[in-house]
Amino acid sequence: MKKMSALRTAALALSLTMAVPMAAHAHRTWLLPSSTVLSGEAPYVTVDAAVSNEVFYFDHRPYSLDALAITGPDGKAVDAENKASGKFRSVFDVKLAQPGTYRIGFASETMMASYKQGTETKRWRGNPANFAKEVPADAKDVNVSVNQSRLETFVSAGKPTALKPVGKGLELVPVTHPNDLFAGESATFQFVADGKPAADIEVTVIPGGIRYRDQLNEIKVKTDKDGKFSVKWPAPGMYWLNAGTARGQSNEVGTIDKPVRRGSYTATLEVLQP
After folding, report:
1. What are the Cα distances from residue 216, in Å, to 43, 239, 256?
2. pLDDT at residue 16 above 70?
3. Where are the domains of the chain?
4. What's the pTM?
5. What top-level class would CATH report for the domain 22-111+142-271?
6. 140 or 33, which is more confident
7. Alpha-carbon gap, residue 223 to 202, rounded angstroms
């Protein structure tokens, strides 16, 4: 019996590896709120933050909380409580002191450049504000790109309220509110890049629980000319949503005034039972 059990376990592991190649080759970043729709007076939500092979399973490393930003329904910053990082995950609490929707997440912008100084090719990576100070003024053949990323989730205390677009990088603009999602129903969203519709980008949606099934069950859609797309939720649960765009080809030369811009976006959405 033990031998048969071991064989079955090995076969299942192999089938998962074949069916879910991303899990073996790419790490996913994600936030996991304890709930996204809460009631009561000043409720709390606990959020996990991690980098892993599988969605919502702790198996690689914690996500740093250094750049954590929480915005309340009134547009003002909210402080996280009880922040801590362990071997595989970071965790923090958020008090929802006022009713409405909170944006919880991280945003980053990194500039990368390659250039020649004399006969030597050099590379630089850092904050765009430091470019002029750290890259020599006499650099030649400068090729510049800017990578913007956003990782977030949304939590509402009581009735959900409108979310104001940030206007920078690739971001999700709700048509259907992200805290008003139900199994069996369709939701519509829009992607914008620096405030403009992001057309024809691929969006991947993966339900949680990859570890406990032999199929990824991913949903892939593309945005239309207005940056909009729709998803019909097959079942209740937590979902990982990811999209990326490169404005310009990978081999395109970008200048300091017009860098090649690339954006990535990841969100966790909760789908409820109707």
Report:
1. 34, 12, 41
2. no
3. 22-111+142-271, 112-141
4. 0.84
5. mainly beta
6. 33
7. 7
